[in-house]
Amino acid sequence: MNSEINIVSGEKRGHEESEFESKRPRLDNQSTTDSSSSSLYLDTSSILINLYIFKINRHMLDFDFEKVCSVSLSNLNVYACLVCGKYFQGRGRNSHAYFHSLHEDHHVFINLHTLQVYVLPDGYEVKDSSLNDIKYVLHPTFTEEQVALLDQNTKHSYDLNNKKYLPGFVGLNNVKANDYVNVVIQALAHIPPLRDYFILQNFENSTQLVQRFSILVRKIWNPQAFKGQVSPHELLQEISNASNKRFKLAEQSDPIDFLCWFLNSLHKDLGGTKKQNSSIIHKIFQGEVKVESQMIIAKTDVEEKDRSFDVDREIVAKRSPFLLLNLDLPPPPLFQDEVEKNIIPQVALTTILSKYDGRTPQESAGTLKRSQLVHLPNYIIFHIKRFTKNNWAAEKNPTIVNFPIKNLDMGEYLESSSAENLSTHYDLIANICHEGKPGKGKGIYKVHVQHRGKDQWYQIQDLIVEEINAQMIFLSESYIQIWERK
Ligand SMILES: [Zn+2]
């Protein structure tokens, strides 16, 4: 029998049940919070508690769902029954957890916030190292050394069913139509400085959105998970709340809309302001673009494509920060016959990037514009504008974008006077693509992320995680890409 079990009286430790009376022999004299100094030897209580611990069923435990009492739906002071996995409020004499322990003969409960474990109805706190794995699954923690090794780890972990999984490359449940959130979460969870920040910082006093994203990132990288997949349910609930139901888990939305909203929300919640580098989000993603514009004076004899800046008239220059770069696809050709319809139009990434070369003019609403990058962020997000809406329906441009997976030179789009002395070469680290027809719920989103240690790409579509040949990534209808400075 385990002699390390340490029982602490509910009266001494309890915050809520001062009226609590124990039916079992009082243990006050022996109780302590220091597990090393006092051990209970084989008495009735410790035998019982060992029996209770033996009845804990880890297969029934799932801490991914919203932490609310299954009876009262309250989110305050919620405990999980470690025998059946259900959540109940409180542990006092009139609490739902207390009644559950009496009616179901289930006796071990964990406080989902403090991670303290209690035996009910007695109310003893139990400190037993055999429960640490449960606490870890509920709230995975990592040391800086462990985080530094995440990308090198090629060792598979095994879940409770002995199914192997690779930490960091696990599927996310699609509760109903949240693939558009899943792909964004996966992409962000594979940006090392962002991931490390959300794993290592303490967000106790931060917003629910920040806390739940942090927990989800930890769970994705958890090497000791009970199951080799994670449900983003808790974060989804908070996304719905925080966005005033603009983003729902039961209705597909556009991942680029969600990504913009999410990054801006995290930035604000982390205390970010308009000042440069005021949050980790801006430190990682924020760049600067210079846009020069000139009013167009109508010249009927000039074809649209031949328009150019008139050096004799005023050119207005404006610098603005950006978190992502919008890239326009050329309109797909109008094919005449059935054979031609099978030809998939293609364009080089460098062609659509020429929008930022400082020379190529774009025309919109009577203004001619040319853009150039002034500051390159460490991580560049491209939004390849594939979807348009007309009055009738959503339309999708099927053009395939050709790109080098490594060593994209962004120097050509950076102002030559830029004082930055950093590399202008970037490697792809995440690629979100769309498959199927445009319009809500008609297509699906997938994401490609890379395991750096193995130099292996993975395709993740909700719960399906598969190794993919890097060559296959080029064939996908890329929608959002994230590139990393070398
Ligand atoms: Zn139970």
Automatic annotation (TrEMBL):
GO molecular function, one term: cysteine-type deubiquitinase activity
GO cellular component: spliceosomal complex
Keyword Zinc-finger: yes
Top-level taxon of the source organism: Eukaryota
Domain USP: start-end pairs: 170-486
InterPro entries from the UniProt entry: Papain-like_cys_pep_sf (IPR038765), Peptidase_C19_UCH (IPR001394), Ub_carboxyl-term_hydrolase (IPR050185), USP (IPR028889), USP39 (IPR033809), Znf_RING/FYVE/PHD (IPR013083), Znf_UBP (IPR001607)
Keywords, sorted A to Z: Metal-binding, mRNA processing, mRNA splicing, Nucleus, Spliceosome, Zinc, Zinc-finger
Keyword set includes Nucleus: yes
GO biological process: protein deubiquitination; spliceosomal complex assembly
Family: Belongs to the peptidase C19 family.
Name of this chain's protein: Cysteine proteinase
